[in-house]
Amino acid sequence: MREDEQAARALVERARESGLRLDREGRWWHEGDPVRHAGLARALHRWIDLSPDGRPVLRLDERRFADFDCEDTPFVARSARREGASFALLLSDETEEALDPSTLRRRGDDLLCRVKQGRFAARLARQAVYALGDSLRDGPEGLVLESGGRTYAITP
């Protein structure tokens, strides 16, 4: 690769470095300071996408994206509520979607699921886990969720 091409690539990579960090609780930080503007934090959450190699990025348009440091999962299920025989999750981007119980997984003390049509992992915050309440129980092979007349094993 020619020297000018290397310099151009280095410039693009530096431009992608946003100084943004998404912490484990779904809070945004910029260069060590919290992002306090609620509208900006909402926008950042809504810009989360995946790069071609599968890592979370902030999608600016079809061709451009910015990197950010993601401490845990790109989304947090902040709360849950029962809707008939199923559950709805309130996500960190302030959208709501149905919990797909077949995607629930355990990671240490955390519960994770897939959101956004299965594209992203989300960690269930303690409040969301508590909202699942009596539907969560110990089964013969570990933790299970009972929902819609079915029992879903929650595997590691």
How would you describe what is shown here?
Helix content is 19%, strand content 45%. It is an alpha+beta fold and 156 residues long. The chain folds into two domains: 3-70, duf1285 like fold, CATH 3.10.540; 75-153, no CATH class. The protein has a six-stranded mixed sheet. The protein has a six-stranded mixed sheet with strand order 9-8-7-12-11-10. Strand 4 and strand 5 form a beta hairpin. The longest helix has 14 residues, at 3-16. It is elongated and about 60 Å long. It starts with a helix and ends with a strand. The model has no long low-confidence stretch (mean pLDDT 88).
Tell me how many strands there are. 15
Report the average pLDDT across residues: 88
Overall outline: elongated
Structural class comes to alpha+beta
Order of helices and strands: HEEEHEEEEEEEEEHEEE
Determine Rg (CA atoms, Å).
Answer: 18 Å
Strand order of the largest sheet: 3-2-1-6-5-4
Give the percentage of residues in beta strands.
Answer: 35-45%
Distance between the termini: 44 Å
The biggest sheet amounts to:
6 strands, mixed
Number of helices: 3
